User: Fold these one by one.
Assistant:
Number 1:
Amino acid sequence: MRVILLGAVAFAFTTSVALAEDMMATRYGNTTITRTSDGVENHVYYNSDGTFTAKQGDATTQGTWAIKGGTICLTANPPIPNTPNPACAPLSAHQVGDTWTAGPYTVSLVAGIQ
């Protein structure tokens, strides 16, 4: 489960906080997929009400997301042991179809809930 939350916030973002809501709009109703170098895949679903669901295999984590000072922070409920809560990462805009690298992760934003 630790990989879910850390992978979920591991995308590099670089746009102003004033545009944060617009940046997240491409994620609503779509799937953010993070992959580790050893092939572990996590699917994250963001909602416009500030909630998210993350799945890795049969494991599911839910919580809230918020934009704070140029970063996106995910707070798992309940917290994941030995994992920062909230877990935060820099924020940048991406469109459906984009794939990018963020630290040890490959991240893709794909259409629909997958």
Number 2:
Amino acid sequence: MFFVFWLFLAALVGFLANSRGRSGFGYFLLSAVCSPLLGLIIVLVTNDLSVVAAENLQRQARSDAELQQWRTHEKQMEALRVATLTTKQTEVARPESVADELLKLAGLRDKGILTSEEFERQKKVLLKV
């Protein structure tokens, strides 16, 4: 009768271990050979692997979300960089019109920075006369 009770307790320890993500048969054997009380203590002291697995899945999901967010940010920054370069290239590629240059030269002449002769010389260069 004692031996049957011993195996019954060992089986309970095995079921408990199995519910905590551990090897139910291994803990049954450990409890049957050593002691159901020792097997129970070991099962309760060790981590619940099902909880650890769930935490790992949550951590992986957070990492994936952060990685996706970082990639989106990098794409936005690259698009902004390309847009900035395109804007600068169009500004450099677009020469100012001759009329704009003449207005600037006339403003410098009116302020006294250029003499009339320098203004006329620059005007001929701009007009290619």
Number 3:
Amino acid sequence: MTLHNDISDIELRKQIRLTNLNFGGNIRLKIYGKLTCWSGKKLKKTNRVFFSSQKDAEDKGFRPCGHCMAIDYKNWKHSK
């Protein structure tokens, strides 16, 4: 997990381009989703975190986004 405030914009773009960071999330709401999600793009920088994989996000206690990861969200919701 990488906090947005702990990484420069240049390094962030580099890590995304190298596919080291594939998902973004909201640290307060414990939700993660795809980097292209319109909901995630509205997050405040102080609340945004990045993950390398879905497993990494779920291991940290985050749930899938209901907008960009609808199938994963439904599976998560039914497993609770």
Number 4:
Amino acid sequence: MAQRRRANPIDGCPLTAAIAATGGKWKLLIISWLGESPRCFGELCRLLPATISHKVLTEQLRELTADNIVHREATGRVPAPVVYSLTEHGQTLVPIVAAIRAWGRSHVTRFGE
């Protein structure tokens, strides 16, 4: 089944397009882990905080796939694992995620959290 790219909430605005594609509570974490190596769904479940449900992780992966950030590859017949990896387009987010992580580290240190 072919995925359609999700619509930009504000036509022609690159900032809202970026926020729509990467915003939310979990997408940057998913991108960060997939930036290290391809992962199967179960592995992502173990790496992410326990507060993310399977339903939400599935939704986030579907949205990232629809935005051509993540590639989904079924490895065989059900229930074979599905492997997720960053697309070439998704790889361009790796340095951005690293910069956000560095900023977050500085922010946490600044306020002594």
